[in-house]
Amino acid sequence: DTSIAVDALSQEGLSEEAVQQERDAAVSGGGGTWEIAVGGGKKKIRRRKGQKKVVEVDEEDELEGGDDDDENGDTGGGCYERQREHPFIVTEPGEVARGKKNGLDYLFHLYEQCREFLIQVQNIAKERGEKCPTKVTNQVFRYAKKAGASYINKPKMRHYVHCYALHCLDEEASNALRRAFKARGENVGAWRQACYKPLVAIAAHQGWDVDAVFNAHPRLAIWYVPTKLRQLCHLERNNATGSSPISGIANNSAICLY
Amino acid sequence: DTSIAVDALSQEGLSEEAVQQERDAAVSGGGGTWEIAVGGGKKKIRRRKGQKKVVEVDEEDELEGGDDDDENGDTGGGCYERQREHPFIVTEPGEVARGKKNGLDYLFHLYEQCREFLIQVQNIAKERGEKCPTKVTNQVFRYAKKAGASYINKPKMRHYVHCYALHCLDEEASNALRRAFKARGENVGAWRQACYKPLVAIAAHQGWDVDAVFNAHPRLAIWYVPTKLRQLCHLERNNATGSSPISGIANNSAICLY
DNA sequence: AGAAGGACCAGTGGTCCGTA
DNA sequence: AGAAGGACCAGTGGTCCGTA
């Protein structure tokens, strides 16, 4: 029975398209596929990026049919495999990922989508006189999922927040890093790690106050500062100071690490 | 064994006085009394307000001995009654409550104390490079308790937040309300209820944005807007608008409810 | 191996309701 | 009755680790 999924959606004022797609996903046996679950106005962008079938032979149907891997022959029945988003690869700015991969422009686009979902949640809250979130909270992720953006989830977005931060704060540096890591053939994890260092340098110039750095940028202010970035800034501040941690905070302009 | 309470305190850099008092409370059999648990630098203020023994015959010891009510004769043993703070009564500005009561100046003073505890928590967090609370959170209440201010607790502070808000935002109106309700012999609950209306009026003048009203005042911005005040503002906005809730927000200056 | 995300967990905001 | 606050609860921020 699909009534639960449809009921949940019917309260949110979604397009009939999204409801229909969610219904299809529910019918498909509990698993569904990411492709099917992607709904509403956000789907177009995702489609554009999803250039599949480099090795595969099956032409995908827009609404039905799985994104079957070779080892999974269970196509005819009601049992889809549990599909995940394609992994990210390091791409240059403007470059579309080929194969079963997603590029970094697409990654950053997800942050913009989350911002739009937050704005919608805020508007609803204001209208109802309820307390209004200023950050991308669990509530926003839940809203995004109901709106059909099932490819957005909290662990992923939190994982790459600092990469998005660098993209917002110093797009040139971010682009240069992407090109360098692509040229070197580094994987996404290595690129992600490398994004921390320039951010710490930016924080250093702002008195080591990474919260202030985030809050000063309107698109970044809606994201929680990642724990690891905060810790790195704290460690570097104490190293850079060259004295007891007690002094801290005020000595920002004297020392430049990078 | 008192080691747990002492250990918890020893990490917070408290005065030995507070630790000793906590130990006494623990020894006293799990109950302890509020008087004993009150410790550290904050105690003085509390003492000043606590003018007891109007009907009672027992002179209180500063550190030992309960604040025994007539019906409780269990004084000699290790079993203290579970003491609560004296209830609030409506007092005029500057008036000290008599008998086993606390006055409203004392109530508002508790909010100032919480602010000081928040500032301490913030300073510790900044020093450690941890995320820094902007509001009076559970963490702050926990810190206050460990610091010996056991008379501060979350339900009480949340209960009277809007009364403190009126005191901050329009002290003249707050004082007038206190005098009027005292003159009429109203109880604290009635006074508390009456504090909502002038706050809604203030919010009305600020485009019904009660969050903005709180945030604009530095001592108030650290407190969460109470749910009921938020709801009242929302209801009044829709009533005042005289049309569909869709219009909302922009029509602030035209209509004055009070 | 490298990576995506379901699902868990400690501690939160909120306040009810057993207590005095 | 009026009031103080321990203690509970649903939903949070954070991220681990079983999964693909």
Automatic annotation (TrEMBL), chains A, B:
UniProt keyword annotation of Metal-binding present:
no
Q: What is its main location?
A: nucleus
Record's GO cellular component terms:
nucleus
Instruction: Give the originating organism.
Output: Hibiscus trionum
Q: What is this protein called?
A: Floricaula/leafy-like transcription factor
User: Which processes are annotated in GO (biological process)?
Assistant: regulation of DNA-templated transcription
Which residue intervals make up region (Disordered)? 56-83
Keyword Transcription, does the record have it? Answer: yes
Keywords, A to Z, come to: Activator, Developmental protein, DNA-binding, Nucleus, Transcription, Transcription regulation
Domain Floricaula/leafy DNA-binding C-terminal as annotated: residue spans: 75-240
UniProt GO MF annotations? DNA binding
Q: What does this protein do?
A: Probable transcription factor.
Which portions of the chain have biased composition (kind: Acidic residues)? 57-73
Within the intact protein, the region shown is 136 to 393 of 393
